[in-house]
Specification:
7-stranded mixed β-sheet; globular; single chain; 5 helices; 162 residues; alpha+beta
């Protein structure tokens, strides 16, 4: 079941493309940041690469004093390291490889038949509450402009820290 807006975002602990541990809960609290959590199926595939390049093109909107972008796939950290270097991606690429799809399942975006995450995106505030989401099927790319709008609306609601 997909995590709904208003629900507490499931915490996770995943390794990034450089082997560092990243926990969603690290971004909570008074000194925390809102999180743009983007699940994508696999590195080195056409739609996924296009989506991540689009995020990189707008990176100041997604990685700043109030927001942190976290991109999650079911690839190994080694695959993600090469992918990130090849594409020049300067944000964490998190590996949901083992236990396979555990974080994706927690958010309700793991496709059991395909063995990978579908295209789920969540905006999570500093209290760990999901404030916006969109889930697309595997072939359907997402629009990064919608992420900017959702983060802007979150700021307009006064949820961002000063």
């Amino acid at each position: 079941m997909v995590i709904e807006v208003g629900a507490t975002a499931p915490d996770f602990e995943l390794k990034d493309n450089h082997g560092r541990t990243v926990r969603l809960s690290d971004f909570r609290g008074a000194d925390g940041r809102n999180v743009l959590l983007v699940f994508y199926p696999f590195a080195f595939t056409g739609v996924c690469t296009g989506e991540l390049r689009a995020l990189a093109d707008e990176l100041p909107s997604f990685v700043n004093d109030t927001t942190q972008l976290l991109a999650v796939s079911n690839d190994s950290i080694h695959t993600l390291r090469v992918f990130g270097e090849q594409e020049g991606l300067e944000f964490p690429l998190l590996s949901d490889f083992w236990p396979h799809g555990e974080a994706s399942r927690a958010y309700g975006v793991f496709d059991e038949d395909k063995g990978c995450a579908v295209r789920g995106t969540y905006v999570i505030d500093t209290e760990g509450v999901v404030r916006w989401s969109v889930v697309n099927a595997l072939p359907d790319a997402r629009d990064t402009a919608r992420y900017v709008e959702a983060l802007g609306a979150l700021g307009a609601q006064g949820a961002l820290r000063p």
